[in-house]
Amino acid sequence: MAQGLRRPRETKTQTVDKRHNTNPETMRKQNQIFTGLVAGAAAFALASCGGSDSHSGPTRVLEVELPQELSVGTPVDLSGIANLNPRELEDDFRPERVRVPESAVLLSRGKPVSSSDEEEPFEGELSYITDGEKDGNEGFSVIISPGPQWVQIDLEQEALVDAVVVWHYFMNDRVVNDVIVQVSNDPTFETGVTTIFNNDITGETAELAGVGRGGDPAFIGTYHGRQIAGNGARGQHVRLWSNGNSDNRMNEYIEVEVWGRPVE
Ligand SMILES: [Ca+2]
Fold first, then answer.
1. 169 alpha carbon – ligand 1 mean position (Å)
2. Cα separation of 172 and 191, whole Å?
3. 57 alpha carbon to ligand 1 midpoint, in Å?
């Protein structure tokens, strides 16, 4: 879709509900741990990671098409989010700054997307998640029901996942709650699940996802998207959890890209 055009959008009211944090002391300690972990992870980047199918061959910078940067509106106080990554560390997870195996390709473009939400999206279509359109303005995202929800991309082939890049809302500073990303060959995610990212520090969504509390940092959505290292996780399906955001309870996606190597 040409830049500047808007998809028709339905007008449905979003319920606003600020997220409540847990014990401040516990979260402060966790934040210290997160900061250390992230600094270490940034130093290693993608190529040196382990995982189910570690890669030791040539690598290249992950080159993604970026949408237009949007001027961020009124600053939002996000200081209550204990595991929020400092911006300077978060820069290391811009997709254009990380490396993937030389043979990694974009696997997800145009692939089918499903969701845990049994209702029709409040706005948009699930297909927007893999349509390649990353415009951050209104009308280009899909919004599904509040509470813990997942969206799932069927790559239609088994693959080694090297990176998942997600564009959440980026019209202003906003942090998506409980981002959990998993890879599996089982479309029901009951068996053979590899969790490649988990920043749910309260554990509510993580329990639904079959994992414990997560040690990855929370992050502010930007037009760069957010790279999540796949570490060669093997599977045909990629599932992304969320549980509302720092502004409202809805779950919203603009685009997700899965990069990796098809399994022959
Ligand atoms: Ca899109």
1. 11
2. 38
3. 31
